[in-house]
Amino acid sequence: MTVSAQVSGDTRKVGATTTKAEDFVPPYPFRYEKMPPVWSLIGMAKRNFLSIWGVDDFQSRLRSKKIFTRELVICNRPDVVREAFQTNHEVLQRKSPQMRHALQPLLGDGLFISDTETWAKRRKVVAPIIHGSRVRGFAPIMIETIEEKRADWAVQGEGAEVDALADMAHLTAEIICRTIFGRQLGKDYAAEVVQGFSDYQRHIDQIDILSLFGLPEWLPRFRGRAIKKPVERIMTVLDKIIASYEAQKESGETSVIGGLLEARDENGEPLSRDAIISEAAVIFMAGHETTANTLAWAWFLLSQCDKSRAKLQAELDTVLAGRSPTFQDVPNLPYTKAVIEETLRLYPPVPILAREAMADTSIGGKSVPKGSLVMVVPWLMHRNPVLWSKPDVFDPGRFLNPKSKKPNKYGYVPFSIGPRICAGLQFGMTEAILSLAILAQDFELKLKEGTDVQPVARLTLRPGENLPMTLHPRRT
Ligand code: HEM
Question: Would you tell me how many other CB atoms lie within 10 Å of the CB of residue 409?
Fold first, then answer.
């Protein structure tokens, strides 16, 4: 097998854009010129949702396709994204039936999949608990956990093989567990929580084909019984953790569960136990794999691009001069941030944002009937050649260079946009910057020879099932 990342040694055509000799073009699936039949597209979608797009889809502004009875509308330019997710939020706030069916057994009426009144109420309570202004309070837990990972890598020594994807998943799960439940309970229960969620995900990690066909909501989905066990397991653990928290809550440290227990709505009412469990599950689910995938991709991209890796190391060595970063250092690490931003552009962890129209509406002058699926596909828009120069090239510098061609905030949406924008945006960015800074300061990661890395999307976009890399300490 060969490494599929393409480092171009000459001038080549990628999509509609020409790339230069030293440009690094990381892997992406084949893009067809002529659309295959629908049944074949559905088969492709089931295996990898990224492979169903043709060259024209990347360049488009607004497209619609009919899949059996359901109208699919794809918004791929800032003006129509704004119209769909901001202006038309009231009508387009409902998540797709695929997403709701996949996550409802676990998240109940949790913020991530609820809408209208329930969503508005929960957003008001949950968002402030993980808001940017609270991240300073969570930073010590993040840094401590990342430093444990660094120590763990240090004992493994030169050339040790790690699965960077699993390692980053472990790191971000530990961080989110300790943030939600507090240092000690987070440590005690992390393994159990992670196991429950990954069991669950194994069962739902596929496209809900019934819903794509537009079949009615009441029709039973096949996996109902299989996911009952992991759901029960997660609920039992969360209940146990909350009970332990209540028994020892005087520790005074910042934790999400403390925030949820103390939260009151506008009538002074606390959240019910079920609501607290649902929202804790939402934050764990939304906040761990996304950041883990981002970091895994960043390691892969840096391993293939000497120029960017050297720039990152130079920034870390100059700004930090050998000490660990603190929360205050984050704004002084612009290149580290740009690496994360460029990683999120090329490999957005949530590659598709889909909504169901709750009433007839219109976007870009096109009428959108009730029941249509309206999609913003970061995977497409972040590589739209009309919006970006050399869209398939890995170039963190584009986020720092004011002259680089970049769209407005509706054209770069790794965290979504509009009222349903990721409630953990600052948390996730800070966590990713600190993780990369602390680990890349001391280690270089090389891709294991012969590894074929390809992006695969089911619920989130990952570099396959694992990412074998070797560890190389930078300082002795
Ligand atoms: C790099 C890391 C992250 C990325 C790329 C990311 C991305 C996203 C995206 C795209 C959505 C909207 C999904 C949709 O519309 O279908 C979302 C929602 C959400 N995210 Fe994040 N996220 C990240 C980290 C986090 C973290 C660390 C937390 C919590 C601490 C978090 C909490 C949430 C919540 C609660 C929602 C639901 C918001 C709502 O529906 O109102 N996320 N995230």
Answer: 12
Number of compact structural domains in the chain:
1
CA dihedral 82, 54, 38, 458 (to 10 degrees): -70
The confidence band for 249, taking pLDDT boundaries of 50, 70 and 90, is: low
Domain residue limits at 448: 6-473
Q: Which two tokens stand for residue 454?
A: 């390809």
Rounded mean pLDDT, 376-397: 97
- Residue 255: the pLDDT is 82
Does 182 reside within a domain? yes
Bridge partner list, 470: 161, 446
Residue 11 resides in a domain: yes
Share of the chain above pLDDT 70, in %: 89
The per-residue pLDDT for range 411-454, each reduced to its tens digit, is 999 999 999 999 999 999 999 999 999 999 999 999 999 999 99
Between the CA of 17 and the centroid of ligand 1 the distance, in Å, is 31
Residue 41, CA distances (Å) to 38, 260, 374 in order: 5, 43, 18
CA-nearest residue for atom 19, ligand 1, is 422
Percent of the chain predicted with pLDDT > 90: 65
**436: Cβ contacts below 8 Å, ≥ 6 apart:** 295, 298, 312, 336, 339, 340
What are residue 363's phi and psi, to 5 degrees? Answer: -135, 130
CA 70 to chain centre: 27
Binding residues: 422
Q: Identify the residue whose tokens are 């240090």.
A: 154
Residue 211: give its domain's CATH number.
1.10.630.10
Residues with CB under 6 A from ligand 1: 95, 111-112, 123, 130, 282-283, 286-287, 290-291, 294, 344, 349-350, 353, 414-416, 420, 422-424, 427-428, 432
Distances (CA, A) of 249 to 137, 221, 246, 276, 277: 17, 41, 5, 16, 17
Sign of CA dihedral 448, 452, 455, 458: negative
Handedness of CA 329, 335, 339, 345 (dihedral sign): positive
Query: Which residue has tokens 């050339």?
Result: 159
Residue 1 lies in a domain: no
Q: For residue 113, which atom of ligand 1 is closest to its CA?
A: 40
Q: pTM to 2 decimals?
A: 0.92
Output phi, psi for 70, to 5 deg.
-100, 130
Closest of 73, 123, 60, 11 to residue 368, by C-alpha? 73
- Asked, for residue 13, whether it belongs to a domain, the answer is yes
For residue range 212-240, list pLDDT tens digits in order.
445 455 445 545 667 888 888 888 888 88
pLDDT at 228: 84
